[in-house]
Amino acid sequence: MRTFRTRTTTAAVTAVLAALSLTACQNDDASGAAGPSAPASAAPATTAPAPGGSAAGGASRTPATGGATGTSGGTTATPPADGPGAGKGSTTGGAATKAPSEGAPVTEPCGADVKVTYTPVSRPLNHGLLTLTNTGSQPCAAYHAPLLRFDDGQAATPVNDSSRPQAVVTLSPGAAAYASITLAAADGSGSDGGTVRKLAVHFAPRSGEGSTDADPAVIALPSGTYTDTSATVTHWQSSMDDALMY
User: Fold this and answer.
1) Nearest-CA neighbor of 240 among 169, 172, 174, 173?
2) CA distance 78 to 85
3) What is the pLDDT of residues 10-33, one digit of tens each?
4) What is the DSSP string of 225-238?
5) Per-residue pLDDT tens digits for 54-73
6) Quick check: 122 and 83 in contact, CB under 8 A?
């Protein structure tokens, strides 16, 4: 009986040891299958703002565009108010011109949308002042000199070429150009003088050949306006003072 107990006990101990050995082997296999732990992901890089850029959420500044309203290199002075001796102004109209591209030179001749007025002046003697105002919505160029015809005259009034400006006068909307008319030479050298009642003002194209397709501005002149063969007209100027120098 004692021998049986010893063998039974020994067999039980052997079974326990075998179970423990099997458990240890399974643990070793599990630890060997697992790879090294992945490193923690790096924090995302911060992108520096571009030089001159605005911070996120901040207000961006838009360059202001724009500029003064007036003639190119000239003035927007108001001509003398219409008085008893002032001629009535004439307004011409036409189709709207296409807006020029930003920075492009203005080449559209004035004439389609303008107002022309005539004002007699006391100095210089025997002179009158023409004022050309751009009444349109786009700039225009006052090329060369106004083409004048008194009453039913066939020939245009001669142009004083010594008055040619250094640059073409460009008129933004609402701006004005000026030209003076010598009605008669102060020394009396003219001939075939007489009074005139109306003045037709045509407009020169860029080429200087002929006139534009715009209708002429027809002005009723003040009573007693006298002119003769010595009459001349200046080129369009950017100011009244420049126009009345001739």
Assistant:
1) 169
2) 17
3) 444 344 344 434 444 444 444 444
4) -EE-TT-EEPPPBS
5) 333 333 333 333 332 223 33
6) no
